[in-house]
Amino acid sequence: MKKRRIEFIIAFILIVTLYLILFSHTSYAAKAGFVLLYLSALMVSIYSLLLENRSPQHTLLWLHVLVFFPVFGYLFYLFSGQLYLKGNLFKNKRKNDREEWGRLVKQESTPDLSFLQDSQNAFVKYADHAADTPISTASRAFILKNGKETFSEIKKMIASAKKFIHLEYYIFRSDRLGKEIIRLLIEKATNGVEVLFIFDAAGSRKMALEDIQAMEEAGIRVQVFSPLRYGFFNQKLNFRNHRKIIIIDGKIGFVGGLNVGVEYLGENERIGFWRDTHMRLEGEAVYSLHTVFLLDWEYVSGEKVFQNYQKEMVEVDNEIIDGAIQIVASGPDTQLGLMSDFYFAMIASATKSIWIATPYFIPDEAIRTALRVAAAKGIEVKIMVPEINDGFLTQYASRSYFPELLRTGAEIYSYKKGFLHQKIIIIDGILASIGTANMDMRSFHLNFEVNVFLYGTSSIRDLVAHYEEDMKDSEKISPVQYYKRGMLERSKESFARLFSGVL
């Protein structure tokens, strides 16, 4: 908080002194003093930027913003450019999470991964070292292809809950679907089932107050992640909880790309068909996914509840053997850029094929390089994105990265049936990732995310089959035609790309 106060004092000095320099009728000597004070405050902000040790190009970019856009540049830097602020803002949560994960991993026995292929082994060694979470061979994953399959299964499992229902969502709407789930939760709560519910303040800002009150009156404990009324002054506004998690009795878990709202069922006329992928988990992986939720609950509620669910989480079927599964949480509560590193390592491990489906394709430099090198080596690289995105900047920023990949032989497909929202990576048909993290800077650096990494599981075959079906509803982008796009399209891409760092 001390650092925050200093930054707002600097912003105040910049605003006041600039106003006095430009609009006051004081003497030249007074204005010279104001200029000196303004430059001093600017130098302090520049020095603070230099201490962050960013890459030289990013440092120079923000230096230009600070110098050539007085006041507004500094305010934009405070709320959009300080990705490293999470080191201070979430220091206590990160410390607590690592301690809990460390205790859990020590309790785990080393799984037998001898069934993995060489390319998988290389990635798994990295994953085991980089993440705090254990790798499980006593788990099973079931792919849910769309909203209809997903919410039908979710409602059925909620209705079957005996002990507790824990859920966490970025977007939870008070529309028909949302109210159906709320009614189920209230019914279970009134029958003695414990219900804990976290929703993100920004993503779920339109959730009806009467729905929240009805849940609380029924005994459901509701917590808001990073309330907006506090976010502006402590700068947590920019860091959102993008996770979608449901845990039923410690035995069933749900995670993936689907929030709660009728548009995810394809019932929004403006958006149309919604293509997404979710996952149902059983076995030890639920243990890890539940841990992610409980650590978030402790953060938002201030309660120490983790130990209350140890017994529930270890009640799993140890005979389930279907490849290996790892839950990886990323965000301000983990090391910087963890999910980006995982994506890069996956891509670098490929020997035959790399298939990606993402709604927002705004990769960092390392991932772009890995994709270009893979394509140049003759590895099949397929990238599927929606034909029409849900935002101007995300759509055209994504397209700005197409030329460099098309030149190296990567194939890019435009999904035309509706809006593609799934976040899938499939490597060589034997390694896959599915979860909440997009391939963009916000998911890599700002959002709290959670992904499931699949190593040789039977569920990967379903992902492969679904990807091949989606290709039938997609159009391959012709490099020749794309290079012929007009100057207006190029200008839109170049403009949108300027904002890639905060998209």
Automatic annotation (TrEMBL):
It is an enzyme of class 2 (transferase). Gene3D superfamilies: Endonuclease Chain A. Keywords: Cell membrane, Lipid biosynthesis, Lipid metabolism, Membrane, Phospholipid biosynthesis, Phospholipid metabolism, Repeat, Transferase, Transmembrane, Transmembrane helix. It catalyses: 2 a 1,2-diacyl-sn-glycero-3-phospho-(1'-sn-glycerol) = a cardiolipin + glycerol. Its EC number is 2.7.8.-. The chain crosses the membrane at residues 6-25, 32-50, 62-85. One of its GO terms (molecular function) is transferase activity. Residues 237-264, 416-443 form the PLD phosphodiesterase domain. InterPro entries: Cardiolipin_synth_Firmi, Cardiolipin_synthase, CLS_N, PLD-like_dom, PLipase_D/transphosphatidylase. PROSITE patterns: PLD. It is found in: Cell membrane. It is a multi-pass membrane protein. The active site is at H242, K244, D249, H421, K423, D428. Belongs to the phospholipase D family. Cardiolipin synthase subfamily. NCBIfam families: bac_cardiolipin. PANTHER family: CARDIOLIPIN SYNTHASE, CARDIOLIPIN SYNTHASE YWIE-RELATED. Catalyzes the reversible phosphatidyl group transfer from one phosphatidylglycerol molecule to another to form cardiolipin (CL) (diphosphatidylglycerol) and glycerol. This is Cardiolipin synthase.
